[in-house]
Structure formats: structure tokens, C-alpha cells
Design brief:
- Chains A, B: Keywords: Calcium, Cytoplasm, Endonuclease, Exonuclease, Hydrolase, Metal-binding, Nuclease, RNA-binding, rRNA processing, Zinc.
- Chains A, B: InterPro entries: Metallo-B-lactamas (IPR001279), RibonucZ/Hydroxyglut_hydro (IPR036866), RMMBL (IPR011108), RNase_J (IPR004613), RNase_J_2 (IPR042173), RNase_J_b_CASP (IPR055132), RNase_J_bac (IPR030854), RNase_J_C (IPR041636).
- Chains A, B: Belongs to the metallo-beta-lactamase superfamily. RNA-metabolizing metallo-beta-lactamase-like family. Bacterial RNase J subfamily.
- 2 copies of one chain form a homodimer.
- With 557 residues, chain A is an alpha/beta fold.
- The first copy, chain A, folds into 3 domains: 271 residues, Ribonuclease Z/Hydroxyacylglutathione hydrolase-like (Metallo-beta-lactamase, Chain A, 4-Layer Sandwich), CATH 3.60.15; 149 residues, Rossmann fold (3-Layer(aba) Sandwich); 103 residues, Roll (Ubiquitin-like (UB roll)).
- Chain A is built from 15 helices and 26 strands.
- The first copy, chain A, has an 8-stranded mixed β-sheet.
- The two termini of chain A are 56 Å apart.
- Chains A and B meet through helix 10, helix 12, helix 13, strand 24 and strand 25 of A and helix 10, helix 12, helix 13, strand 24 and strand 25 of B.
């Protein structure tokens, strides 16, 4: 993208038409400011992929213009891509104290903490990059220390909300700065970027206070151990668990690496108050009477290797869920995780535990961190933007958010429903969506970043559904014919034992096929391979309805 | 299982601790009666599996005792296993007229219709098998002609509810026979088997009448084409669509094989009334003005190959969704299908369609066919059983259903939460769960039934996540050493192009490994293979964090 004089440009490298890998950018002439750099977890169709991060090639090509990465809050879908970003771009990272704590954990893991330039900000900070200055406002979400921000540009003010809800009685002092929001709105907002996660949900988000009351009640009723699973980063909920444990005179054990790490960061940095001596090691659990024990663990999304899942199947060394124990799932399943979560609930019921669970807020043990329609309308009302880009959501959420904006008075045609990579340019007060920059998914598989692409995935899909058949042909170089009978090896296809007949027939067919290749083509091993693939493929499909990958290998001797 | 004198035995071969593949059995001495024979669709972990049916080996071993298969209704999870059952056991199948229509479609597809013994029953039928007689009662569900049944045995009466809800204003004349239910309860029920699908949901199931009103409203508001997707077998909902089309003077096209087939069965057999000339061929859609067209299609579960999905991506030949068209999803997503459904909704929004959707009954376009807690309590209250076995549900549902039963007076300890294969024996009025018969999953993959097992699936999983690397070693028989450099072929692992260096190093390592195998072991190709697998496996894991399947192939020359 060449320099666009007097032009303010807004685009996303991730977060539009998806939930995850949020990464937004604001460019004014030669200064690019990045907001967030998240990851996304793959769905089942992306076989074997560990992580998805934004394609950052546009930023790499414009390295010298990228001034800063500003982070709204510490959730994975906002910080998970940072290590990969910093390996490619040497840019300072600005975030609040708690968010920085989580980023540091990540950078340490990737062994790039020392060389990274991390800068702590607060909601009172002011930054300037070229002709753009940035200031901040507090918002409430499901993790401490969240920011929204205002970019003051020569074209006008651009507001990015971050992830937010309004909660007038949050668990800790995490109120949104509603007065500052009102001021910003009064000053005038050219463009609002607001998150859309719950744009489909009518009403207002229930208060976190409700959760506290339900947690207290469950702890009081429990006769034995209480095990509660939630997101480690939801520190105010963790605080409520600590408080309930204190009130019922229980010690608290932490299970799961991220729970231990995040609680440590939160305590160190003053976001979590835990009475001296309350936290015990998991080895001490069995030394205490069950009614004196509470356990806080990871795995509320049903992740198969996390603590809760292992507890539910009796595979957590040294800690056991017993009949009569109380197990609380204090988190809503993220779409796609429902089955894994219900599997755990079923296992816990099988053990005989008293399981408190439920989708959404039906159990009273969870409220969403994202504003419902009334919250979104309050933000829109406070901001009264001229232009609106709904962000952080899938298409239907963006569309519903557009309708909400129009309902509070944003003019039809002034909302831009765009894709990752689409650029909205604003010049002389007029916004237009005309051009695109490169955007997309980069797959992280093992330690490889971007080394797995569509072909590899297509192969994996075929292998996963029908397996494969390797055909080894030992051919004489001089005589152009088979020296021995072909060898076949199958994996993931059918049981060898039960399919001996089938494979015998296949071997005969291979010999026949190879012998029938016209003499003139026998010089080309490629032609022989094609013939074998085709005839064996057809034969297997007609006999088994399966299409294994067929790999002919020719050995010349 | 040897003959159990004077003993009534109840067990399931499918349907307990799962949703799907329902198959229950009642045995009195030497007479076994089967209720339903369903299938289940695999989740993503069962790579490439098309279908799951109950393991029927117990029935095959006791062939001569199996008297009848009685079918409650025509949903896949109750009839989908019948073709496989009839290929193994020659047993008469009893079902109502509509259910038989759907079973016939299946048997025709499997080319075994002619030799099958199908017997039509009604809710007034009475059957006798040995010392057990069976009579029936109508229930309301989301498909026509559903039955529950009473088994009158020397030990007492056993009631099987089938799938049911109570709806006092159903769309067609599909009322439950509540008076007969009351009589049965008055006579005395020894054991109740009742379905548990919605045992977690408080309240009562809303009436199908509500859906009719919402469908009418949407049709009236629509300015262009209306496209509605629902389960083909939900004939009363189809009738509501037909009625709405009639009221708004629209012709109706049917898209999707199962929609066409089921509507045909329903019309032929008098379950669906369609005005003469209303149904048009899909080729005629574009000849009519859009406000004169309604389309009824399959794919409400987001199935990628079904009509709705293809419409949403512009891949349905000859039919196009245009901006301003109304698309209604009149079915709730079955757990696990949420993502596929929302993907379609997003695509339709992208096109610019007016999409009416929503989980559960939030859009007013869908009500469940399964009774909520109050419905289940009404059934329990009418039956007042001595013993209770909650069926048709996952563990948490069975447990919640147990609590409901206890709340209306079933004694604690008289509810049996059992697994597929667990047998409850009743003798002299006392029920005990003591023994097991064989039960489990049989996988159908392509045309193979049971030829894919855990090893094949494990291979597919490894292949799907990390791909594979084939190592071809050409070894001299006499000299026990490599004749040429090793050849490697990878699929689904990493891009060859980008990993040339890696694969070069691998080749070197293979040579080194083979050469270093101790002389004494070189006679055994197996040992060489083991060494190669191990050293290459370690090398690749440490360099890529991936564990591809490594397949060494030795060619002797």
C-alpha cells in the first residue's frame, strides 16, 4: 500500500467473520498502529493444526511503518499471536499491568522475553505516533484491566471498544469508565469499532454479582470437596471462589498449569487477594477432611488434556472425585466445545458427583463477558458515531450489530460490514471501502509456522477418512517389467486380517495392470503409476465404497 | 444367556448413555421381543465412519428366540439399523403405516425389501409372543403415527413410552391417548421405560401450534422467495408450510432427496394434504415471480451436502438465493451440529437474505419433539411405576430423569441407571441388575459393516494429525546393506518444497541408522525397521514437534 496522503485507513487482519485471532490496524499516512494480535483454535476440519494466527505479510512488507502494538486485554484471541508477531517485527508492545503479565508468560515460553520491548500503560496514558495520538478508557470484561481506546487523527476520532460489557455491580473494581465514554461521545466520534460477540442476544448481560451469590451458596451446601472449573484469566471469578472458600473454611488447591500461572501473575500484581496459607499443594488435598477442601481447576471447555477432564475420568494422579463431591462448571461452553463439556458432565455423574452445570447463565454459575444487545446499544448511544464498523464476530453477529446501530440512529449506508483485509479509507470526512490488503490464516503445526497448507490438509483429510494403500513395484530397469510380485501395505483402510482375500485380488490386479501398460509407455514410471492408481482405485471403490490414498512406489533394479 | 425360568429380563443394545441407535429388548423365558433398531451418526473422532449401529451379536447367538421387532416411530435413530438387522435375522417387523413407509424406503435402498416380513399395526393392535402380549397407545412426537407400548407379562406390565411429548394443540390429529395412559396406570405398572432427551429442560414443551403461527407470519411478510428447511419426517411441520404457501398463493418446490421421498410417502399414505398442482419441479422455480414461490428443503442440520448448505454457497444447480429472499431454519440444531448450521446462516447473511433462525424455540420456528420436565413428570404420574428405567439419553439426562421420578414418588433405589448390555431381571416382583449381555458399537464404513475397528481408527487419527513418511530401503540380500540411497515420500506431513533441507537430513540419518545396526541383527529386516522408525521419529519430533506415521519398506534384491 503506497502512502495515502491525508488518508485515515482502517482494516483488520483478523477478527472479522470469525471469533478469534483479533488484529486490527489504524494507519494514517506512514504510521501504522496495531490493536491486538490474537490466535484462534482450529476446528476439526483442520486436521492436526495446533493454532491459527493472522497472516501478517502486509505488516512485514511495511515493517518500517509499524509503530506500535497496543493490546486491549489478555485473552488468547487478543494476545496469542504476539510471540509470532514479535519474531517478525521489532515493535514496542503497550498494555496494562495485568495484560503484560500474561504476555510475559507467553514470551518466556517462546524464549523471546528478553529482547521484547514491553511498555506498561494505564487508562490514563497518552501515546503519540506521527499525527495520531491515543488515549484510553476502562471497560468491564471477564479479565482484569481491560481497555478501549480513542485515536485522535487529523480526520477525526476513532474509537475501538475492546471486548466489553456493562456491569454496574462487577465482582471487583472493574467498572467501565462511563463518564469518560460520555465525554468522548460528546466530543464527536467519526468512526466506532465495537465488538459483536453477543449481538444476537436480546436484553442486557447479567451481573457478575449473581455468580458470586451462587458460588457462595454451593460452597455452603457442599458436604465434601468442592471442585470448580473456570477460565484462569477470569480473576474476579477466581476471587469469588477464594472468598467462598474463606467463608466455608476451606483450603484451596490449584490444578492445571494455566491456573497456577495466571493466579500467580494475578497475586503478584495485586489483582487477587488470597488469605495467607489458604493455597495448598495438590499433594496436601488428601491430608485434609473433604469438607475443608476446595479445588480450582482448568478445563471448563472440556479440553481433553486439562485438569477437569482428567479428574472426570480418574486420570489425575493423586486427586480423585468421589461420590458426593460437588463439581461446578463456572464457564459457558464456547460454540464447538459443547460435546466435550457434556462428556465430562456425564462422566462426573457416573462417578456420583453432584454436578452443577448449565448452558449460559442457567446454572447461575456463569455470565458472559461480552455485552448483549442492550449493552451494545448503550455503547452506540454514548458514542453516536458517524461511521460504524462492527468487529469481533461472525457474519450474522456483524449484521445484527448493524441493525442495532441503525436502531439508535447510525445512518443506513454508514455501517461497513467488511472482511479481514478490506480497507476502509476516510478522507475529507468521507469513508469508502475500496481496496484490500493481504489477510488470511497462518497455521501453526508443531513448531512450523505456515509450513502446512491446503495440499497437506487435503492429504490428511483423505488419509483420515479412508486411509491408504502403498503399492511397491520392483521393476527391472532393463526389461521394464515386474521382478517380483507387488507388495501392498495398508494403514487406516481395512483390517488386513479380515481383508486378505481383497488384498490378494488387488495384488493380482496390480500385476495385470502393469503388464498391460502399452510397451511404448513402459519407459515412463509415471505412466505405470497412473495406471495402477486408477485401476486399483476403481476396484477398491466398487468393492468397499472407500477411496484410500493409493501410493505406488517403483523400485528400479 | 441360558433360559431364565419365570424371569422377565429387560436390556438395551443401544440408546443408553447416548443419543442414538435405540434398541431395547424384553425377554421372558425363551421369547425375545425387540423394540426399535436405530443408527447413530459418528462424531468427528470416528474418522471416516459413515454410521454406527448396535452390536447385535447377542441376538445372532439367540436367533431362534427373537420373535419380533416392533418399531415405535420412523426416525433414523429408531429405524436406521433395520436393514443391517434383517440381513442377519429373519424376524417380522411390526410398525404403523407411516413408519412402515419409511422402513420400506430403506429396505428398497438395501435391496432387501422383497424378502422382508413387514406387518402393519395400529394403536388398536394386539400381539402375542409366548407368554407376553403387547398392546399400544398413541403418543405425540415430531413425526406421524408414533406408538408407545405395554407388555403384559406374567411378572406384570412393562411400559415403553417411545419418544414423546404432550401437546394439547398439535398441528394435526396427533394427540397422545391420555385416557388410555390413565387406564394403564390404574391397572398397575411394574416397570416404566421412558425417554429422557429433554430431562434437563424445565417447564413444558411449547406447542407445535406456535410454529404454525410464526410460519404463516413469515410467509405473509416475505416479498420474494421463501425457503424453509426442516426435517422431512416432521410431516405436521411440512403441512404447516403447505398451508402457509396456500394462504399466500405460492407454489412449492421440494429440494433434497429425503424431502422428496418422505413427502411422497406422506402424501400417498394420507398423512399430508397438498392442494392439486401446488408442487412444482425445481426447474419451474425461475419461471415464476419470486413472490409466488416457496421452497421446502433438507439440510436444517447444516449437512454439507444437503440442499440448504448448497443453496447458501451458490452450489445448487438452477436455484439461487437472492438478496431479499427469506430463509427460515425451522429445526433446532442437534448438539454437535451448531457450527455447521451457523456457517450456513453466515453465508445466507452474506448473500443478503433475510434469515430467520435461532436456537431452540427462540425464533418461534421450532419446538422440540421431546417432552420437557413437566411432560416427563406427567407421564411418570400417569404410570406410577414400581420400577423405572430412564432410557434414550446421555448419563446426565438419565440422572435428571431419575430425580424427576423420585419427585413424583418412585422409591429411591427403584430406578435403574444402566448401560447398554446391562440386564435388569425381574422375578417374583423383585428387580435386580446382575448380569450383562454383549453390547457396543458396530461401525459401518462404506459397504463394510464391522470391518473398521480401533486399530484402523487409531491409524487414521495419526495420519490425520501428522501425516506420514514412507521410507523405502533397497537392501542387498547377500550383503545386508543398502544398495542405493533411501527414498522418502511424505503425505500430509509438511510441504516437500519447503522442507527439502529437512528431508535431506532425514535421508542421511536413515543411511547412518541402517549402517549402524549391529551386524548380528542385520539378518532381520524387522530390527532394521525398528531402528529407522525410532531414530527418524525422534529426529522429526525434535525438529517439527510432529509425529508422522513412519513406514519403512525394505526391498530385498
Amino acid at each position: 500500500m503506497s502512502k495515502q496522503e491525508n488518508t485515515l485507513s482502517i482494516f483488520a487482519l483478523g477478527g472479522l467473520n470469525e471469533i478469534g485471532k483479533n488484529m486490527y490496524a489504524i494507519q494514517y499516512e506512514d504510521d501504522i498502529i496495531i490493536i491486538d494480535c490474537g490466535n484462534k483454535f482450529p476446528d476439526e476440519s483442520l486436521l492436526g493444526i495446533d493454532l491459527i494466527i493472522p497472516d501478517m505479510s502486509y505488516l512485514q512488507e511495511n515493517k518500517e511503518k509499524v509503530r506500535a502494538l497496543i493490546v486491549t486485554h489478555g485473552h488468547e484471541d487478543h494476545i496469542g499471536g504476539i510471540p509470532f508477531f514479535l519474531k517478525k517485527l521489532n515493535v514496542p508492545v503497550f498494555a496494562t499491568r495485568f495484560t503484560l503479565g500474561l504476555i510475559e508468560l507467553k514470551l518466556r515460553e517462546h524464549k523471546i522475553l528478553r529482547e521484547s520491548e514491553l511498555k506498561e500503560i494505564t487508562s490514563a496514558s497518552e501515546l503519540t505516533f506521527g499525527k495520531v495520538s491515543v488515549d484510553f478508557f476502562k471497560v468491564t470484561h471477564s479479565i482484569p484491566d481491560c481497555l478501549g481506546m480513542v485515536f485522535r487523527t487529523p480526520e477525526g476520532n476513532v474509537v475501538h471498544t475492546g471486548d466489553f460489557k456493562f456491569d454496574y455491580t462487577p465482582a471487583k473494581n472493574e467498572h467501565a469508565d462511563i463518564h469518560k465514554l460520555a465525554e468522548i461521545g460528546k466530543e464527536g466520534v467519526l468512526l466506532l469499532l465495537s465488538e459483536s460477540t453477543n449481538a444476537e442476544r436480546p436484553g442486557a448481560t447479567p451481573s457478575e454479582q449473581m455468580v458470586g451469590e451462587h458460588v457462595d451458596e454451593a460452597f455452603m451446601k457442599a458436604q465434601q470437596k468442592v471442585i470448580l472449573s473456570t477460565f484462569a484469566s477470569n480473576v474476579s471469578r477466581v476471587q469469588q471462589v477464594v472468598d467462598a472458600a474463606r467463608k466455608t473454611n476451606r483450603k484451596l488447591a490449584l490444578l492445571g498449569r494455566s491456573m497456577v500461572n495466571v493466579v500467580e501473575v494475578a497475586m503478584e500484581r495485586g489483582y487477587l487477594q488470597v488469605p495467607e496459607g489458604m493455597i495448598i499443594d495438590q499433594n496436601q488435598i488428601n491430608d485434609l477432611p473433604p469438607e475443608r477442601v476446595a479445588i480450582l481447576c482448568t478445563g471448563s471447555q472440556g479440553e481433553p488434556m486439562a485438569a477437569l477432564s482428567r479428574l472426570s475420568t480418574g486420570n489425575f494422579r493423586g486427586v480423585e472425585v468421589l461420590p458426593g463431591d460437588t463439581v461446578i462448571l463456572a464457564a459457558g461452553p464456547i460454540p464447538g466445545n459443547e460435546r466435550n463439556v457434556t462428556r465430562i458432565v456425564d462422566n462426573l455423574f457416573t462417578i456420583g458427583a453432584n454436578v452443577i452445570y448449565g448452558s449460559g447463565s442457567s446454572s447461575g454459575m456463569h455470565v458472559s463477558g461480552h455485552g448483549y444487545q442492550e449493552d451494545l446499544k448503550l455503547m452506540l448511544t454514548l458514542m453516536k458515531p458517524k461511521y460504524f464498523i462492527p468487529i469481533h464476530g461472525e457474519m450474522r453477529m456483524l449484521q445484527k450489530h448493524r441493525l442495532l446501530a441503525e436502531s439508535i440512529g447510525v445512518e443506513e449506508g454508514n455501517t461497513f460490514i467488511i472482511n479481514n483485509g478490506d480497507v476502509v479509507d476516510i478522507k475529507s470526512g468521507i469513508a469508502r471501502h475500496t481496496r484490500k490488503v493481504t489477510a488470511g490464516n497462518t497455521y501453526v503445526d508443531g513448531v512450523g509456522v505456515g509450513d502446512v497448507g491446503d495440499i497437506v490438509l487435503r492429504d490428511r483429510k483423505q488419509l483420515s477418512e479412508d486411509g491408504m494403500l502403498i503399492v511397491v513395484l520392483t521393476m527391472s530397469k532393463s526389461e521394464k517389467k515386474l521382478v517380483t510380485s507387488p507388495d501392498t501395505i495398508s494403514r487406516g483402510f481395512v483390517y488386513m486380517r479380515e481383508s486378505e482375500e481383497l488384498l490378494k485380488d488387488v495384488n493380482k490386479l496390480i500385476e495385470k495392470t502393469v503388464n498391460e501398460v502399452p510397451e511404448s509407455n513402459k519407459n515412463e514410471w509415471g505412466v505405470i503409476k497412473q495406471h495402477v492408481k486408477k485401476s486399483i482405485g476403481q476396484y477398491l471403490f466398487s468393492h468397499t465404497r472407500k477411496k484410500p490414498m493409493i501410493l505406488p512406489i517403483i523400485i528400479e533394479i
